[in-house]
Amino acid sequence: MSRSSSRTLARVLGAAALAALALLAAPASAEEEKVLNVYNWSDYIAEDTIANFEKETGIKVRYDNFDSNEILHAKLVAGRTGYDIVVPSSYFGKMQLEGGLLKPLDKSKLPNWKNLDPVILKALEEMDPGNKYLVDWLWGYTTVGINVDKVKKALGDTPLPDNAWDLVFKKEYISRLKGCGVSFLDSPTEIVPAAAHYLGKKAYSKDPANYAGTAELLKEIRPYVTLFSSSGYINDMANGSICLALGWSGDINIAKNRAIEGKTGQNIRALIPKTGGVIFMDTMAIPADAPHPDNAHKWLDYIMRAEVHASLTNKVFYANPNKASLKFVKPNVASDPTVFPSEEDMKKMALPGALSNDSRRAMTRIYTTFKTGM
Ligand code: N2P
After folding, report:
1. Could you tell me if the CB of 84 is within 6 A of ligand 1?
2. Quick check: CB of 44 below 6 Å from ligand 1?
3. What's the pLDDT band for 29 if we cut at 50, 70, 90?
4. Whole-prediction pTM
5. Distance (Å, rounded) from C-alpha 289 to C-alpha 298?
């Protein structure tokens, strides 16, 4: 062997030995591929949230939408969703964490946790003791939205009811609004709890008997519901093709804003019923089999930055759990009582509560009968 070829061999062997050593010394969790798969509700993020995260971290975000807890839950139960971040409402998050479907958070990777409001954390503990799995994304409430001019016109001499829930649950009102379009959210765990709350019962209960009476109430008004929608109704409200919605507070405000920006001439308003709306807290969580849990923690910490959380609220008109973000919320949004309800209104609201498989089954039965009109 010539001297130069033996030097080459030594170099190659040296490189191989170094590579082997590097492998041995590699940390247990090697760097994840630069991908994050997020599954979130539709119309629920700012324009630049994903782009800014990608630019800063080099992590490519794949973003999919759903519009009911039932859809997300079925996927998580089936497993291998490929998602790294999902956003269940807290009462579904409770069932998922108890069922081993979620991964505990590593708080050492979440320095911005300090920004969260202790009051919201405490409220979430009801579903997630010790705040181990769920981080609030945004919160709002199920309520009634109207096209003010169309509703007033359709009701004629009859004034708006004292309790806005009457518009959707009382035949004498809803029957007169069918002609200008009535939309209901398309999910058992949104509609049946709202109906139960209207009847003075718990919105969320483990006891199926709690929902007695809701089937009869819903049956009575079924002929006047013209659309079931949990996302498309936003544009329908904005362009005037529906005048009444049983929907979510922020969505109705998005519709109001789209009507203003698009100059559609529709005057949309989110109402807070006298007996209160039904509160939900939508929470970010990491599925137990998430392929990129480190990237998921980077996303969580990014969202919990004061400016980022504020930008979500500014765009979609839902309140956030981030105390430090409040100074970045636009004054017209911060002072809007339909986004941040007053203390008095908050006292009237129905709060999220734990469900059981039995109560979920009862709600599905009641809702399916209602929707199909059987
Ligand atoms: C959807 C926002 C609210 C979801 N656009 C209700 N959990």
Report:
1. no
2. yes
3. low
4. 0.92
5. 17
